[in-house]
Design a protein that fits this description.
Its EC number is 2.10.1.1. By secondary structure, the protein is of the alpha/beta class. It has helices at residues 3-10, 20-33, 163-171, 209-219, 237-248, 268-274, 314-332, 382-385; strands at 18-19, 38-42, 55-56, 66-67, 71-75, 81-86, 100-104, 116-119, 123-125, 131-133, 141-142, 153-155, 176-180, 185-190, 194-195, 205-206, 229-233, 253-257, 278-282, 284-287, 293-298, 304-310, 342-345, 356-364, 369-372, 389-393, 404-409.
Length: 419
């Protein structure tokens, strides 16, 4: 594409923006359609991944009748003659005669022929050493299959793997899990005016997104290496095309910062056109963060990759991450699109007319309230640093004190649960 053609393309009016909720659903759908292939990971290396197959039991849980207490496995009425002892991990001989007992430990296999288990604290001894006592009316052991039967589905595909799931998988006999491959992500920082070290000054500002965005992406389950972060990329169309082509060679998702408008030095749109990308979403009716986009590229072999264009203003870029990148990555990992929790506004939040307003809030989880924070301009990061998420103020409304509104939580570390 010539410089003149690119300049003409850059002046083309942007299309009407997609509604925020529509955009969120649309990018999730294309991500799910391109869900990444399964890989096998050992239990010790599966935290933060996503189940690619349902988790099922390999045996009954428990696999055998298991004592719930320390005590005596007895047969028939007492007093009972002691004929043995069974500890956890042993396979005991059966009780074959009434009036007999074996000492049993918590977690040990219950001998066949047992009619009751007598707790140690409820037992006594006769002078000749026989065991006495009255078993409690409820059984003191767990029956096979009480928790789950062999082959039962415990958790569906798409469930995030966390420590609790890992423990459950181990308990039912798994050594590894089939999980979705983690998305590989890259970041291209656009803007000749950016500094990468030291304080801002002399008309140049410090790049805040290059250091921060990779950490956000990791919290959404991506792999991002230091070498995957490139920039600032020169403000020319050839430089943009070359940087995108190089990043897309190894990444499932390339995020860019800045250049999402149609001004004379905004080259993202013509660069995507030159690479043959199609837009999934091209601008979203949300404030802050309006000039955001998500594009898709499909190779001849069917491989699908994505480019997320984040605005250059830092808070706007994070709005684009939670609006477009988060649902896309949920789809790529085969997860459900997260339902948004609700909170009660503890302070007023203005509406933005026909646009959705994502307003930074601090959450009081105990009270279920959302408190608007200060310093929330699109170029500011101070408010973001003290916030837990964004309250969603829908188009044509304003956030009144006491109103119940959806909240988009900021991402946590992989495996952590949201509120």
């Amino acid at each position: 594409m010539s410089t003149e053609t690119a300049a003409a393309a850059a002046q083309v009016a942007a299309p009407p923006p997609a509604g925020w909720e529509e955009a969120r659903s649309r990018v999730y759908a294309v991500g799910l359609a391109a869900a990444l292939p399964p890989v096998n990971r050992s239990l010790s290396d599966a935290d933060g991944y996503t189940l690619a197959e349902p988790l099922t039991t390999r045996t009954d849980l428990p696999a055998f009748p298991t004592s719930s207490v320390d005590g005596w496995a007895v047969r028939g009425a007492g007093p009972w003659d002691v004929v043995g002892r069974v500890l956890a991990g042993q396979t005991p001989a059966g009780l074959t005669a009434d009036g007999t007992t074996v000492e049993i430990a918590t977690g040990a296999m219950v001998p066949t022929g047992t009619t009751a288990i007598l707790r140690i604290e409820d037992s006594g001894r006769t002078p000749d050493g026989r065991v006495t006592g009255t078993p409690r009316p409820n059984p003191e052991w767990r029956e096979p299959g009480e928790e789950a039967v062999a082959g039962e589905e415990l958790l569906p595909a798409g469930t995030p793997v966390d420590p609790a799931l890992i423990g459950l998988a181990a308990s039912c006999g798994h050594d590894q899990l089939a999980v979705r491959r983690q998305p590989r992500a890259a970041l291209l920082v656009f803007g000749d005016e950016l500094l990468t070290a030291g304080p801002p000054g002399s008309g140049r500002v410090r790049d805040a997104l290059g250091p921060a965005v990779p950490s956000w992406l990791r919290r959404y389950g991506c792999q991002v290496r230091p070498s995957d972060v490139v920039g600032p990329v020169a403000d020319t169309l050839p430089a943009h095309v070359a940087a995108l082509r190089a990043a897309l060679a190894g990444a499932d998702l390339v995020c860019t910062t800045g250049g999402t408008m149609h001004g004379p030095v905004d080259h993202l749109h013509p660069a995507l056109e030159a690479l043959g990308a199609d837009h999934v979403v091209n601008t979203v009716a949300v404030r802050p963060g309006f000039p955001m986009l998500l594009a898709r590229l499909v190779d001849a072999d069917g491989r699908v990759r994505f480019v997320a264009g984040l605005p250059g203003n830092p808070q706007s870029a994070i709005v684009a991450l939670v609006s477009l990148v988060a649902p896309l990555l949920a789809g790529l990992q085969g997860r459900a699109l997260p339902a948004l929790p609700q909170a009660t506004l503890a302070g007023p939040v203005p509406g933005r007319g026909d646009y959705t307003h994502l307003a930074l809030v601090r959450l009081d989880r105990a009270a279920g309230t959302a408190h608007p924070v200060r310093h929330v301009g699109s170029a500011m990061l101070r408010g973001l640093a003290g916030a837990d998420g964004f309250a969603v103020i829908r188009p044509g409304t304003s956030g009144e004190v006491g109103a119940r509104v959806p909240v988009v939580p900021l991402p946590l570390l992989p495996g952590e649960r949201t509120w």
